[in-house]
Amino acid sequence: MTAGHPSSVPFQDLPLQVRNLRTELDPAIAEVLRHGQFILGPEVTVFEQAWAGFCGTSQAVGVGSGTDALQFILRALGIGAGDEVITVANSFIATAEAISYAGAKPVLVDCEPGHYLIDPAAVAAAITPRTRAIMPVHLYGQPANLPALQSLAQKHGLALIEDAAQAHGATLADGRTCGSLGTAAAFSFYPGKNLGAFGDGGAVTTNDEALARQLRLLRNWGAIVKYHHEIQGYNSRLDTIQAAVLNVKLRHLATWNERRRIAAGWYRAALRDCPGIALPAEAPWCGRHVYHLFVVRIVERERDLIARALAERGVQTVVHYPIPIHLQKAYAGLRLGVGAFPCAEQAARSVLSLPMFPEMTQDHVAAVADRLRAALAT
Ligand SMILES: *Cc1c(COP(=O)(O)O)cnc(C)c1O
Predict the structure, then answer these.
(1) 166 C-alpha vs ligand 1 centroid, how far in Å?
(2) Cα 177 from Cα 174, distance rounded (Å)
(3) Ligand 1: does its nearest atom lie under 6 Å from the Cβ of 162?
(4) How far is the CA of 338 from the centre of ligand 1 (A)?
(5) Ligand 1 pocket member 190 (CB < 6 A)
(6) Does the Cβ of 95 fall within 6 Å of ligand 1?
């Protein structure tokens, strides 16, 4: 081991982030305990306005999770039984499940090699008279090919719903921010995301005021005025305590994203000529990749053996995701077998997410790079 290298590197370090913010977080949480408005308290409105401002939209609506944010967008748009929504095979299963919850059919398509983002040509080929929406995923913190998808959505009169659960603060090359690029966008504040709460949470951003009103109904049993239920809705609000935490953390998000980008640069330099791996590609339409994850591809060796060798050397890694959605038992009903989406299946076999968190030091990155080289050499 090189002098100065940490003995182990965690995949991320949420307790460290909390320790660093304790003096800001404690009074924010204490204020919620003091006023006692635990549901839809003032912190929720403050956060919604701040989050809309951060994303460059007029509206943000806090909900219980990113999954509900996706589902509620579909329901608010009236998308359900008999409708098809096109999304990508290599995402977290929540993307497809939100479509199923709404009663619509997820139509999966393949990604493109290199950056593993949804392939617009595959989307175009999957459009039918039943298609109502396209749901791209800004995977790993990088915007999907929105320029191409926007023109497709426009041409066919489809809603464009961003799954921005991994892309807080990511931008297109033209400077526009993820969350403001389509009809509406879903964010997750699951603790491990670039902006994470102390539990589950989510939000929808949109410029459509009528849609935002519908989302406010859906999250609160169909009522904006208590006990006046305009539609049948759900119980899925962003908790006041979570909003208080997010208000504190949002002040740091831009800095944290910048640190992630710096760590990604250290990885690229340390692994530039490393045989046996492919570094993550930045797409030409990407302005700011926010590196929710730093995902390399193991090209010549068995990925799981490399992951195990790294674990033995004290480096924690994760696979996002080991089984594409079309090969999950839960979606056997789609009747899509092995070979349906070669790029998504290649990703599932070979991708490996290296440690990535804003508090990472250059020594952390150097330790991971050294141990990855050693693992690849055995
Ligand atoms: C985390 C995530 C979700 C789900 O968000 P939850 O808040 O956990 O419900 C959806 N899509 C993607 C791509 C995600 O990474």
Answers:
(1) 8
(2) 9
(3) no
(4) 25
(5) yes
(6) yes
Residue with the two structure tokens 């076999």:
349
Cα(91)–Cα(194) distance, integer angstroms: 17
Spell out the CATH class of 16-248.
alpha beta
| Nearest C-alpha neighbor of 43 from the set 236, 189, 220, 248 | 248
pLDDT tier at 4 (50, 70, 90 boundaries)?
low
Name the one residue in this structure whose structure tokens are 């799981």: 304
Beta strands in 276-343 (DSSP E): 277-278, 286-288, 294-298
Task: Provide the sign of the torsion angle of the four alpha carbons 241, 243, 247, 248, taken in this order.
Answer: positive
Mean pLDDT calculated for residue range 234-244: 98
The order of strands in the sheet holding 277-278 is: 277-278, 294-298, 351-354
Q: Which fold has domain 253-377?
A: Aspartate Aminotransferase, domain 1 (3.90.1150)
Whether the predicted pLDDT of 3 surpasses 90: no
Cβ contact 167:182 at 8 Å: no
Task: Determine what percent of the chain falls in helix, strand and coil, rounding each to the nearest 5.
Answer: 45, 15, 40
Domain segments of the chain: what residues?
A: 16-248, 253-377
Q: Give the three-state DSSP class for 234.
A: coil
Instruction: Report the length, in residues, of the chain.
Output: 378
Task: Report the separation in Å between the CA atom of 2 and the middle of ligand 1, taken as the mean of its atom positions.
Answer: 37
What tokens were used for 197? 């709460």
Ligand 1 pocket check for 203: Cβ under 6 Å: no
Residue 26: alpha-carbon gap to chain centroid: 27
Q: Where does the pLDDT of residue 1 fall: very low under 50, low under 70, confident under 90, or very high at 90 and above?
A: very low
Whether residue 220 is predicted with pLDDT greater than 50 in this model: the reply is yes
Using CB atoms within 10 A of its CB, is residue 221 exposed (0-12), middle (13-18) or buried (19+)?
Answer: middle
**Minimum-distance ligand 1 atom for the alpha carbon of 188:** 7
Query: What is the CA(202)–ligand 1 centre distance, in A?
Result: 9
Q: Is the dihedral of CA 256, 262, 265, 271 positive or negative?
A: negative
Q: Whole-model pTM?
A: 0.97
pLDDT single digits (tens) 301-356:
999 999 999 999 999 999 999 999 999 999 999 999 999 999 999 999 999 999 99
- Is residue 6 very low, low, confident or very high in pLDDT (cuts 50, 70, 90)? confident
